[in-house]
Amino acid sequence: MALADFFISLLTFVTIYSLFGLGLNVKFGFTGLIDFGHVAYFMIGAYVTVFVAMPAGLSETYEGLTGLGLATAFAGVPGGDLLGWLVALVVGMAAAALVSLLVGIPTIRLREDYLAITALGIATILNAVFHNERWLFNGAFGIREVHEPLSGVFPIGTGSFQLNLLLFGLPSVAILGYAAYRTAKVVRPLGVRPALLGTGATLALAGSVVFVITTMTGLVVDLGVLALNVDNTIAFVLLVGSVVAGRAALTETDHIGALLALASALLFTLWYLGQPLVALVADGETADLLLNLFWLYDATAGSAGGLDYDRFFFLFTLAFLVGAYLWVERTVNSPYGRVLRAVREDESVPEALGKPTFRYKIQSLMFGSALAGAAGGLWAANIGFIDPTQFASTVTFFAYTAVIIGGTANNRGVVLGTAVFWVINSGTRFLDDFFPSEYAQQLAALRLILIGALLIVILYYRPEGMLGEQDYDINLGRGGASDD
Amino acid sequence: MASAGLLDALLQGLITGMIIAAGALGLSLIYSIAEVPNFAHGDMITIGAYLALALNKPGAIPFVPEFGGLPLIAAGVLGVAVAGSTGAIYEVAIFRRFRSKGADLITMVIVSLGLALVLRNVVLFLVGSGNINYDTERVTNTNVELYLTGNGLSVQTVQRQAGDLVTLGEWGYGWLSLLAIVVVAAAVGVGVYRWRSDDASFETVHLVSPRVFGVASGIVALAALATVLQGAPHTIDAAVWSTSVGVSIKYGVIIGLTLVTMLAMNLLLKGTKTGRAMRATADNMALAEIRGVNINRVQLVVWVLAALLTALAGVLTGWFASNLNPNMGFSLLLPIFAAVIMGGITSPYGAVLASLIIGVSMDVGVFLLPAEFATYRTAIAFVILIGVLLVKPEGLWGDV
Q: Which fold has domain B6-137+255-391?
């Protein structure tokens, strides 16, 4: 798989899980409800969307309820399958919200830890039901007949190679450029010396990793890696240099965030453009570099290249994320959102002011669950196959980790945290190539150990997350918001 | 040939309940004294089970040097001991720091979640996700078959040896002796309860509550009389009712070990200075600290005890089911939480009793429900929990 394709699939994952995380942020970040069963609504959204869109009798192996076939119901209208799918998605979101209403009415009054364990239990039971009841949605065998909206239309292109390149390539470069500009704005306050030290530390670290990887041909636990040879000595020296420079950079500046941004931007550039650049310099090979730069353009799609379905689907999910982001922003910035935050801080205060806090909590729960349901519908269409094992309770915990890393009660933080989480969890998968394949499970476990440790460390040193709580249009004024 | 019935399900449930109780006891201590709703508790169980595995079957774990392996008893004891020190590590490295920062309940929940993620993946990293079992002798089940005939109760013990059913023993009780056994056992139980509780006043602290004492002596009397009054077996062809109960040495060991552990915990909580400090801390941490209780020491003791108890539960689960996997602890987490909340989180005694209730209702429920509901075993525990939370959120027993 080309690097650009992997990049696209990673971005799609981050987008869908960000949408999922936004839903969690409404519940957990803004209203203070610990819903450990968040994944249940993801699952319900996915299954119901697929079920409503799925035409009947597509497959012999499917023994669940007959689908409603909305995807083919509007076949006469142009774009009818998209319309049918969108209706299915709305039904999926409504189903998720409705189930959360049913769950919330008895449980939402409970103390926070009781709510957490009850929600976890309900999600586990729901998952067991979906797993065991074959008559419902085919049980453990899952559903393969997932409708992918507009999949028949793609790839699209203009028929002319140059025009295609211009049409899809230019926005790609523009987006990369804009990202670079935003990063530069974040890194700017760093100052020259710390920036240089940080750059040095990052490059040295990357170099050391490259040396270790290139010398390693066989086993991970091969002690030969530790032996004294030229490559290892260089790697070791680089590693020490990296640590020294990194420490120096940390002591020289207070802008740790800027330093981290600089380091991640450098690592991304090395990962994404470094390898093709090496190919360019060594063999005069330009194809990889161009493919990576013009990542929205797929040369293999159609005769003259164009926009393939994966790339389109990324843009499609992105549109949903942007919509949900604006919706959540609008909600939390309204007086309504202020009541939600008041419920989070101390429920008795809004109650004393005559606010029906029970209703607010239920509504917040339903709103968050509907977003999770939308994420579920998109997830199903992206993967093309759903079964209950995809919706284990660990998914909820991952979302919590992402929200907390990025910044609880911060919608941008959710996206940032989800990106950090998935870069650690999936983005580092290219490192697997350098290890024997039987260690894949070990490496996956190692990543999750790292994520769990990161969660604890962030909670200890920076409980508000990387970005901290966001600012609101309607604020309580400086100093007025403290507890004392 | 009698088939397994309600009595068998009851006994199974009792064993399940005992294992849950070992976990619930530790969780109840952590919950009430350390004030951490510990979501890592299930994975602490897994860690305990795998520590014993590392000593029992070192070849199964790639990073442990091969040394032949210890017998399961030694490996279990050592594994539980090592697990105790991991409890100290969790407290000192993680939870003490968060406590000193005044972390709230939500933060503690998430921290324990992070710890759970780390622990489970450490197991996955070191051992992998496959099923594995302890290297120990196979234990054969003995079926105790009860037949109710016109002349009284007849008992047969049957064992499957090399594919054939072998009758090991056969005896019976006449109606009169049955009546005598039940009446005398009940009388002993009530009598002991009366005798133990006649000094009851506001200040009395019973080391073992009179009720427990009464029930225990009743059961002892029942067993003793049943052994003494064994008579000739009746013809079982005309049995009105028959049932079979599977038992093995595992059952005895699990019940015995958990009972001894509970007694030891009871002694510790009620009979020692540390126990009093623990109970004081559970009541009011700030007040206890003012009165000179070393909070950090108490918390350390709590975490070590909880880790010991979870490891015990882990080893027993792994041995009883002849199966270990990285998810074994997590699947016990829900019943354990259910038991602790049901018993009232501040009461270890309530937690034990609730564990037994939940264990029994899980297994009896599976027995009574149609076969296709067998996979919803955990769900039964949960339905009970939700019911209790909705009706009586402070738990069935409240404070002790």
A: ABC transporter involved in vitamin B12 uptake, BtuC (1.10.3470)
